[in-house]
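=== RUN LOG ===
request id: a7f3
mode: sequence -> structure
chains: 1
length: 198
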Amino acid sequence: MYFRGVISQSDMEKIDKIYKAALELFTTKGFHGTPTSEIAKTAGVANGTLFHYFKTKEDLINSLYLKVKNELVEESINGIDKIDSIKLKVEFLWSKSIQWAMTHPQKLFFIQQYMYSPYITTNTLEEVDKIKEVYIKLIQEGIKTGEIKDVSVDLIYILMTQHLFGMIQYLIMNPEKYHNSEFMNMSFNLIYDILKVN
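=== RESULT ===
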C-alpha cells in the first residue's frame, strides 16, 4: 500500500473511511473533479490526516486501486486449489469474478475508470503483475498440459480479461441473464472455445 509508517487499528479505521469516501467520490465525480479536501470531509477526517497516510491524491488513487484489485483476486481464487481440471479452474475464476462484480458494481467501475487514467504508476504496475500471477500460472499450466492454445500468455490473459469485462457489462445491462444457468454456461463455453485446443 502507499501509506507510510506503522498502522494501528485506529489508523486502519481512518484509512478505511478515506477509501470508502474516495471510492464514492471518484466514481461519481471523477478523479479530476474530486479534491482531497472533499474526500477528507466526506470521510470525517482532517485534510492533514489524509496526507499523513497518503502523500498525494495520486498515491490514494493507486492505493485504492490495489486494494480493490486484491479484493477481487482474493475472492475469485478462494477455493480454486480444490479443483483439478484446467477448464473448471478457468470457469471457477470466471464465475467468481462475475459474482464479485455483480455484488460490487461501484468497485468494478472504479477499476475500469482507473485502467484508462493517467494515474497509473510504475510501482502499481509492478504490484499488478504480482496480483495477476495466479492467472498467468493457470494459463501456463493449461498450455503445458495441452488444454490451452500455445500462444503468447500475455495475449491470452488480455483476451480473457477483456471478454470477462465485456460479459460483466452485458450482465449489468441484462441482470436477468445472470440468474439463467443455461445462458451462463453457454457464455462461458463460447469464451473458452477461443482458448482451448481443438
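=== NOTES ===
Residues 136 and 145 are 14 Å apart (CA to CA).
DSSP finds ten helices and no strands in the chain.
=== END ===
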